[in-house]
């Protein structure tokens, strides 16, 4: 009986608690976009983007307020929010996806594909984005660039202004993550 008790106590004292899900968070991520036209280039930047990565599940989520984009000209910002994106009706853009073949044990840089769904202006589109991930001291930096098309999100451009708005938009992002604490 004592043998069984000793074995049981050894098992209990050596048992490890279940591992908590490791998450990292970027509270002030950066997303910018650029659109070239013959009339005028359009660029804007949003430095208030929230993103979380669940390291164990290799999942990433990004949320941003559309009216937080800053433009060079106030009129561009007004048109962007009121006429095109209708930010009062569709205030957020969301991306949810997974980091394919991500290995969180690798320190330094790795290039991976992030597959997921991007929702903007009430429309969702599947995306695959080549992404650079840098790990240093349990902090991560994730960055990349992708092209998206205005027509994919049912953004109405008046015919008179169609020449002023490019059909494709280059989107660049950079997130600096730190361990998430509840």
> What strand order characterises the main sheet?
1-2-3-5-6-7-8-9
* Low-confidence parts: 15-19
Radius of gyration: 22 Å
Order of helices and strands: HEEEEHEEEEE
Mean pLDDT: 88
**Beta-strand residue fraction:** over 45%
Tell me the structural class: mainly beta
Can you put this structure into words, describing what you see?
With 182 residues, the protein is mainly β. 13% of the residues lie in helices and 51% in strands. It is built from two helices and nine strands; from the N terminus they run H-E-E-E-E-H-E-E-E-E-E. The chain has helices at 2-14, 74-84; strands at 23-35, 42-54, 59-65, 70-71, 92-99, 108-120, 123-136, 139-149, 168-179. It has an eight-stranded antiparallel beta barrel with strand order 1-2-3-5-6-7-8-9. Strand 7 and strand 8 (139-149) form a beta hairpin. The protein is elongated.
Question: Which tags fit this structure?
Answer:
mainly beta; 182 residues; 8-stranded antiparallel beta barrel; elongated; 13% helix
Topology record:
Layout: H1 2-14, E1 23-35, E2 42-54, E3 59-65, E4 70-71, H2 74-84, E5 92-99, E6 108-120, E7 123-136, E8 139-149, E9 168-179
Antiparallel strand pairs: 1-2, 1-9, 2-3, 2-4, 3-5, 5-6, 6-7, 7-8, 8-9
Could you give a short description of this structure?
With 182 residues, the protein is mainly beta. Helix content is 13%, strand content 51%.
